[in-house]
């Protein structure tokens, strides 16, 4: 485990200053060309984080929770917007799907500057040792579209992947396990380093109803919220069960109606809802789980969706709750440990941070953690390459070719952004 406090605070306490600012326009326009930066944006709201005051590389959400608790106790915060959700110093994180079986590290980073918008109100927070300079940073220069993007295949061929799906269907039919989410990857290589800000812009433009994220070389736009904790209320948007234009040759409303009636998708969805509801229950004084899912329509796919809500005490912070909920059956399977073992034995893929929690936590434990789906990872040592990931929930009625097509539909947002859609 590696904890880095980048600013030298010595024995001094950290000083954070938050000021209300005039609307600065699209937040992503403040992301600099180089240096650490983060973003978490949905429908124009959320934040960008610039620079890094402290960084913690870890394996677990629990360790990150303890670290942030200690760091946040060292911060004195002067705020023009006290008590407002998401406003103030925060830690932004990206966690591996399975720390026991990944070469990648999880990371929690504390930006030096945060520029945010919520409910139409905008602010800037700066973290430093003495008086903070509160001048807004200059907006960025032009971003660079990917040059010469080419698909260079994934860790497994499509035939190998559908073969694995077939094996998992057999395990499910022989009652060894109920549901397993299997993923595949696709590498894209460009002729020049990939400008993640360009990809983020395209995702924000094309998929405004998703949470667009940028943390530590990973960029994506996910529709799935593991949890939001706001003033003692916790909300989780569970997705599982998917259709896409072309899957049955039908369009729009008809497709949505078919999804809402599909027994295969409803059972796949129920596993995911049950896993989140059961994991959340011990932390909640009261909980609401809707009886039937709704349909969430995105430009590339539609999902069955259930919003679970609950009331938690002050002792349950967003990171601790994320630790309890991850990995849900939306991205792992049922029962969890059996599904995890099957994924690690059969999937032949290091998921890295794909399908892990991505989000932020504030000083009072409020926060939002999404699931890092529909994204790709660029590594510092190969800036021209991006690894994209997509998965699908496998149940007894799954057809390997249809599951493959589902993963293709889920890769569309990133391929489009890379100029390959
Ligand atoms: C695994 C992914 O998506 C998850 C799996 C879904 C499904 O199997 O229907 C739907 C939404 C997500 O919970 C992915 O996007 O890679």
UniProtKB/TrEMBL annotation:
Catalytic function, reaction form: chorismate = isochorismate
Alphabetical keyword list: Isomerase
Entry coiled-coil feature ranges: none
Domain (Chorismate-utilising enzyme C-terminal) ranges: 159-410
Enzyme class name: isomerase
Keyword Isomerase part of the UniProt annotation: yes
An example molecular function term from Gene Ontology annotations: isochorismate synthase activity
Transmembrane intervals: none
SUPFAM superfamilies assigned: ADC synthase (SSF56322)
EC number: 5.4.4.2
GO biological process, one term: salicylic acid biosynthetic process
Family label: Belongs to the isochorismate synthase family.
Name of protein: isochorismate synthase
């Amino acid at each position: 485990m590696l904890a880095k406090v980048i600013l030298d605070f010595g024995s001094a306490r950290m000083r954070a200053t938050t000021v209300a600012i005039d609307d600065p326009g699209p937040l992503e326009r403040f992301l600099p060309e180089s240096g650490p930066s983060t973003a978490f944006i949905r429908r124009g709201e959320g934040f960008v984080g610039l620079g890094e005051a402290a960084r913690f590389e870890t394996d677990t959400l629990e360790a990150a929770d303890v670290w942030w608790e200690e760091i946040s106790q060292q911060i004195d915060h002067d705020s023009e917007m006290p008590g407002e959700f998401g406003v103030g110093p925060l830690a932004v994180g990206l966690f591996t799907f399975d720390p026991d079986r990944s070469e990648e590290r999880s990371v929690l980073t504390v930006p030096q500057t945060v520029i945010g918008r919520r409910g139409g109100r905008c602010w800037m927070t700066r973290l430093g040792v003495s008086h903070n300079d509160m001048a807004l940073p200059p907006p960025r220069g032009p971003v660079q579209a990917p040059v010469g993007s080419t698909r260079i295949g994934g860790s497994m061929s499509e035939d190998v992947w559908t073969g694995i799906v077939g094996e998992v269907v057999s395990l499910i039919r022989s009652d060894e396990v109920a549901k397993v989410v299997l993923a595949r990857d696709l590498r894209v290589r460009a002729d020049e380093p990939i400008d993640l800000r360009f990809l983020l812009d395209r995702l924000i433009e094309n998929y405004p109803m998703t949470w667009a994220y940028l943390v530590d070389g990973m960029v994506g736009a996910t529709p799935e919220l593991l949890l939001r904790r706001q003033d003692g209320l916790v909300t989780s948007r569970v997705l599982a069960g998917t259709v896409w234009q072309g899957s049955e040759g039908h369009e729009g409303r008809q497709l949505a109606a078919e999804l809402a009636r599909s027994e295969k998708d409803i059972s796949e969805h129920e596993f995911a809802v049950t896993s989140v509801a059961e994991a959340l229950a011990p932390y909640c004084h009261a909980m609401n789980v809707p009886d039937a899912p709704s349909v969430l329509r995105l430009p590339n796919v539609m999902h069955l969706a259930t919003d679970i809500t609950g009331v938690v005490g002050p002792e349950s912070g967003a990171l601790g709750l994320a630790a309890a909920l991850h990995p849900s059956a939306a991205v792992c399977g049922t029962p969890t440990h059996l599904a995890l073992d099957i994924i690690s034995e059969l999937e032949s893929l290091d998921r890295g941070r794909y399908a892990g929690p991505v989000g932020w936590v504030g000083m009072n434990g409020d926060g939002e953690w999404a699931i890092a789906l529909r994204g790709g990872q660029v590594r510092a040592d190969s800036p021209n390459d991006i690894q994209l990931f997509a998965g699908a929930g496998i149940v007894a009625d799954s057809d390997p070719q249809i599951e493959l097509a589902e993963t293709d539909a889920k890769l569309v947002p990133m391929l489009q952004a890379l100029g390959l859609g």
